[in-house]
Amino acid sequence: MTRPFLKMHGLGNDFVVFDARRDPLSLTVAQVRAIADRHTGVGCDQLIVIERSDRADARMRIWNADGGEVEACGNASRCVAQVIGANAVIETAGGQIEGTATSDGASIDMGAPRFGWDEIPLAYAMDTLHMPVGWETLENPVAVNVGNPHVVFFVPDADAVDLERLGPIIEHDPLFPARINVNVASIVSREHIRLRVWERGVGLTRACGTGACATAIAAMRRGLVGRDVTVTLPGGDLSIAWRDDNHIVMTGPATTAFTGEIDLEAYA
């Protein structure tokens, strides 16, 4: 029996999306990895399943390409909001978020950021605004949890950092018991940040919505930018605002590339 799916992306961060609100779906780690494989599967950065929820309009579950289930994904949240339509409360493992679909994407209330060392989490207590740690030329980062954990480094030129080499070293450092998403950012102006992201369990991505949120909040906390910024990633721009009620609002595109059907047993 085949199962319908959507292939969607937010700024090139791509997803295989299953709508399981009417017909529940259970996937194994092996199936997730096989479907995500870009050579022998459909191919994606993350696999998304939309489920029924007793507490919200829908529940979003997220698996990275390596088969690990994660708490949050900003770009996928916009895609899910597009699938649901109108205004929706979406349950995630990282907390409830609210999405408003637009003609070409969505605006997502990502909730409030968390800054406590044990909320990131880190292996031991330290200042998360000016972390006294470093990896080669990447030093003095900021740690932020926006539904999933991020560490942010501000550098003169984000493109000059060998993130493909340093990203996995930092991701798997024992300082981060849940592993970590690694962001390198350059401040262009008070309203503009350039960003590259090494995503936990995925690698270098064209865009990372939670990374854009975490980086914007980190820059705002350090006084480098205002409370409303554009974050430019390799895949394009996201607008991030930190409202007076402490909630983060992310706005950007969400696109359906194609639809299809898949025989899940072939990927068991």
Describe the SSE topology.
Elements (H helix, E strand, L loop, with lengths): L1 E9 L2 E7 L9 H8 L9 E6 L6 E7 L4 E2 L3 H11 L2 E6 L2 E7 L3 E7 L22 E2 L2 E2 L2 E4 L3 E6 L8 H9 L9 E9 L2 E8 L3 E3 L3 H13 L6 E6 L2 E7 L5 E6 L1 E9 L5
Parallel strand pairs: 2-3, 4-6, 12-13, 14-16
Antiparallel strand pairs: 1-2, 1-19, 3-4, 4-5, 6-7, 7-8, 8-18, 9-10, 11-12, 13-14, 14-15, 16-17, 17-18
In words, what does this structure look like?
- The chain is α+β, with helices and mostly antiparallel strands and 268 residues long.
- The protein has four helices and 19 strands.
- The strands form two sheets. The protein has a 17-stranded mixed sheet that branches. It has a two-stranded antiparallel sheet with strand order 9-10.
- Strand 6 and strand 7 form a beta hairpin.
- The two termini are 13 Å apart.
- The mean pLDDT is 96.
